[in-house]
Amino acid sequence: MGARKKNRPSQEVNAGSMADIAFLLLIFFLVTTTIASDKGILNILPPKIDPNVPPPDIQVNERNIFTILINANDQLLVEGEYSDTKNLDVKVKEFILNFGNPTDDEAVQLFNALPPSLKALAKRLPESSDDPGEAVVSIKTNRGTSYETYLEVFDLVKKAYFDIYAARVNLETDEYRALTGKDDAEVSLQDRGKEGIPMAISIAEPDKLGGN
Amino acid sequence: MSKFKKKPKAEPGISTASLPDIVFMLLFFFMVTTVLREQDILVEQRIPSATQLQKLQKKTLISYIFIGKPKNTALYGVEPRVQANDALLDASAIRQWVNQERDMLPEADRGLITISIKADKEVKMGPISDVQSELREADARRVLYASIGKVQKD
Fold first, then answer.
1. pTM (2 d.p.)
2. A146/B contact by beta carbon, under 8 A
3. Which of A54, A99, B26, B55 would staple A122 via disulfide (CB 3.0–4.6 Å)?
């Protein structure tokens, strides 16, 4: 009799915990999967040109403009020199923080408030920018320039600015960029990073070369 | 004798009680990961990569515009085209499209409309700048160059 009982169909596995396991997995996937990313590089276009108002004639010293030209073969001319994208962000950073000839007291105060790592970048060259408030980075392309190269250069210029902003508020660049301004603390961090150093990136109208 | 007969009987059926759970799990998984796209993409999309990506706080403000070589080259040719909503647009129609998109937003947010440009890597700057100048005309000046994260090599 006892021997027969042993061969009976075994007990059913308890399925009560199955739901828990399922929920655990569900939560795992919920946390790990990223839904269609809406990430990108933000650019603010200049306002439209009013045909009735002549464009303002702004005199900017050539030394305050950091020109990057990209031709239809995706070659770069940075400040008049043939170059590539390597170290472009460092060059831009040095240009912005050059402090060659600070125009007013505010720029001097700005310089004094910078962390030492950024102060070290200020080479005070006479042929580079006067102060960050004056500095403009200009990117000009041909119509035949590939979008990929343009975005790479734009990305590096943005990186230079974000590096500076992040260093001013003692954050990593990634941390600073992740700030969305959803509460007051984030907004104040963002503002402290940006203060006095506007992100002046000018995208010139591409000329007709090498494209349609 | 009876011992031999009993053997085939002793198959414990696998419990199917958890099957609904598994099915629900899969269902949820696919619900979460699939992108609901109400539009067919008619142009090629190989999004370039970049490092300095930013996320927008409000996704409702984003409208998408796709630029690339048409997939159906027999019908639309090989030149890069602009797609918004479900159809290929001419550059001149972009302004109207922007205004339509803007009208769908609540009034307080209309100035903050952001156009996400999803452009193929191979596109040249010519079509991009045409789109940008139209966006300037339409006063939709916030532009997001959609890109994917790049692994930084140091």
1. 0.77
2. yes
3. A99
CB atoms B125 and A29 under 8 Å: no
CA distance A92 to A136: 10
Quote the minimal CA–CA distance from A72 to chain B in Å.
9
B124 reaches A (C-beta below 8 A): yes
pLDDT by residue (tens digit) across B133-153? 888 888 888 899 988 887 765
Q: What is the ipTM of this complex?
A: 0.74
Question: Using the beta-carbon criterion (under 8 Å), do B25 and A35 form an inter-chain contact?
Answer: no
Cα angle: A149, vertex A212, B118; to 5 degrees:
45
Check: CB of residue B43 under 8 Å from CB of residue B65.
no
CA torsion A146-B49-A92-B115 (nearest 10°) is 80
* Burial tier of A23 (Cβ tally within 10 Å: 0-12, 13-18, 19+): middle
Q: Considering only the beta carbons, identify the residue of B3, B32, B55 that sits closest to A38.
A: B55
Residue A191 one-letter amino acid:
D
